[in-house]
Write a structure and sequence with these properties.
Blueprint lengths: L8 H32 L2 H10 L2 H14 L4 H26 L4 H22 L2 H5 L2 H32 L2 H19 L16 H16 L2 H32 L4 H11 L1 H13 L5 H22 L11 H33 L5 H14 L1 H12 L4 H23 L5 H11 L3
């Protein structure tokens, strides 16, 4: 891991705030998922809570992206981080006074938190290209991605221990404080001012700005290929990671919550290694080729995982040891490859999109990416109540292959698009 960028004060503060906030969020998400699954026992209700958190971001994301290009971005993400902390602490107090949170209270909390995130994410996404040069972006993205994956590895184990021994209140308390710490650290980030013409924030201006971002994406075959891939992959993989995997382990294979937490942490180690490998790989190969090879491998591994967990396999494979070891190997490789794809796509996006349009284009991009997630999560929620987990894993593989075929067809004739778009960016967008 390259630590030289930490000498950049703003990058250090961004890294610190992001890591602390993400740790708290991931710990709470893991614990809250176990709480809902334990209190309801229903895959459908479990998936409903997860899907409900995606819907606000889907509808409000475009508005958040437009506002990110018009408002003071620093004040926006600092205020929203603090708001998330206060919201989380408020529901933690409700839990203390009542002794529990009902399904509908959890639903309201998740929705409100994601409403804030819909405005927070487009604003915070502009920080990296504002404080680093284009030459530093790959290294910076790889570093932040690695830190995110470190949080992903540590959080399930910590969440399992905290939730198992101290309960949901302590988990929510930690998350609330982490949001507040992140907001305070972000106050000291130094960002250059963006001189954007003030046209107001009426619905008509939001519509026009969103259309501007959409038109930019339409001109990019590579971006359209990424959107096609994202729609199919998010549909299946969001349901697989968030619904199928925890439900199959805990309800179907009767793995304890603490063991599942440890399993998740071990497999997510692949996401720590992935960004560094992606940064090195990108120096020798194109982003398009990296994505095709990596995602094709992911789809193939998902197919083998479906076979491994199917009823036709010997009973040994479905014991606690067999499930933890065998599935762990597959998931480790899948997580590593997905991390490689993520860091390459993020860097490519930041290089080809003008900074003054980052919020608008990013919100349109995110809207397409997220549109399929709640549908996939709900489908997997219904599926896990009715069919074997192996069917769900095979289903994920099928959509992965469809997505990568579409991506390859859209991008194979556009290997020089990045340099062309960067040349256009120097002349401005008409």
């Amino acid at each position: 891991m390259n630590f030289s960028l930490l000498k950049n004060r703003s990058f250090f503060l961004l890294s610190f705030g992001s890591f602390v906030s993400l740790m708290g969020t991931l710990i709470q998400q893991f614990a809250l998922s176990l709480y809902v699954l334990k209190t309801t026992g229903s895959g459908t209700l479990f998936a409903t809570v997860i899907a409900a958190g995606t819907i606000p971001r889907l509808f409000l994301g475009p508005i958040g992206g437009v506002l990110a290009d018009k408002l003071d971005r620093k004040k926006t993400f600092v205020s929203l981080d603090i708001a998330s902390g206060l919201l989380t602490l408020s529901f933690a107090l409700i839990f203390v006074f009542k002794g529990y949170l009902s399904f509908y209270e959890i639903l309201v909390y998740v929705v409100l938190l994601q409403v804030i995130s819909a405005f927070f994410d487009p604003a915070i996404s502009t920080v990296m290209p504002s404080i680093l040069s284009k030459e530093e972006l790959m290294t910076g993205n790889a570093f932040l991605s690695t830190m995110r994956q470190v949080a992903s590895v540590l959080s399930p184990v910590i969440a399992g221990l905290l939730y198992g021994y101290l309960g949901l209140f302590i988990v929510m308390l930690i998350n609330g404080v982490s949001f507040l710490l992140s907001g305070v650290s972000e106050i000291f980030i130094e960002m250059p001012p963006m001189h954007v013409e003030d046209k107001g924030v009426s619905f008509e201006h939001i519509r026009k700005d969103f259309k501007t971002g959409l038109n930019f994406l339409k001109k990019s075959q590579v971006a359209m290929g990424v959107i096609f891939l994202g729609v199919f992959v998010n549909f299946a993989f969001s349901g697989m990671f968030n619904v199928l995997l925890p439900y199959a382990f805990i309800q179907k294979f009767h793995i304890s919550e603490s063991l599942y937490g440890t399993f998740t942490s071990v497999t997510f180690i692949g996401m720590i290694i992935g960004p560094a490998l992606g940064a090195m790989w990108s120096k020798k190969d194109s982003t398009e080729r990296i994505v095709v090879i990596s995602m094709s491998s992911v789809a193939g591994l998902m197919l083998f995982l479906g076979l491994y967990t199917s009823p036709i396999m010997p009973q040994f494979f479905h014991t606690t040891t067999g499930i933890l070891f065998g599935t762990g190997v597959f998931m480790f490789m899948i997580c590593l490859l997905i991390a490689i794809v993520n860091v390459c796509i993020s860097t490519h996006f930041q290089k080809v999109v003008p900074l003054e349009m980052m919020g608008r284009v990013g919100s349109v991009f995110s809207t397409f990416m997220m549109a399929s997630s709640p549908l996939g999560q709900m489908l997997f929620g219904i599926m896990v109540d009715k069919v074997e987990p192996s069917i769900g894993f095979a289903f994920t593989s099928l959509f992965g292959f469809i997505g990568i075929i579409g991506f390859w067809r859209l991008t194979r004739k556009n290997t020089q698009e990045t340099s062309q778009l960067e040349a256009v960016n120097t002349e401005g967008i008409s």
